[in-house]
Amino acid sequence: MHHSNYNPEIHHRRSIRLKGYDYTTPGFYFVTICAKNGSHIFGKIIDKKMVLSEYGKILDQCWNELPEHYDNVGLREYCIMPNHFHCMIELLNCDLQLRTPLYEIIRALKSFSARKMNDLRFVCDNRKSRSPVWHRSYYEHIIRHSDEYACIANYIRKNPERWKQHRNHCM
After folding, report:
1. Region 74-78: what's the mean pLDDT?
2. Is 67 left (phi over 0), alpha (psi -120 to 50) or beta?
3. Which of 49, 111, 156, 163 could form an SS bridge with 77, CB 3.0 to 4.6 Å?
């Protein structure tokens, strides 16, 4: 008989979601997604500007294609960094049945991009198996007013300039 080391008192995943909040609610959301193990796979910062790798270009493409898959998604500020991705997503006010929750949109972005990146890895690196691209969870923040929106948009835009100060931090 196999004994699991799982202990629900110790091994529980804390939800990042605001309890009771409807994540299909129209509005703006700030999201940060980190690469698995903080790997610098999306490119590098040169002269305070992000230069995308092939994997970074795949992420950029998948991000920009999200509105083709989801009617209630508006893309706002975003920044691909060497080991993470910052973005602002607007969930648009649309027919209730067409609304998609934020976490489904993030799951799709991670899934679409990881599949394409692993296809490229498989061909270029002759790997026989797929590797995780993304850290298991992500950070989210509900943007509640215009001052906060402006501050976060500025943070995203200036992220590459501050890379040396925050090199080892994912968020």
Report:
1. 97
2. alpha
3. 156
pLDDT attached to residue 50? 97
> What architecture does CATH give domain 27-164?
2-Layer Sandwich (3.30)
Q: What is the per-residue pLDDT for 128?
A: 58
Residue 110 predicted with pLDDT over 80: yes
Side chain identity, residue 50: M
pLDDT tens for each residue of 148-169: 999 999 999 999 999 987 655 5
Question: Is 141's pLDDT higher than 80?
Answer: yes
SS3 letters for the chain?
CCCCCCCCCCCCCCCCCCCCCCCCCCEEEEEEEEEHHHCCCCEEEECCEEEECHHHHHHHHHHHHHHHHCCCEEEEEEEECCCEEEEEEEECCCCHHHCCCHHHHHHHHHHHHHHHHHHHHHHHCCCCCCCCCECCCCEEEEECCHHHHHHHHHHHHHHHHHHHHHCCCCC
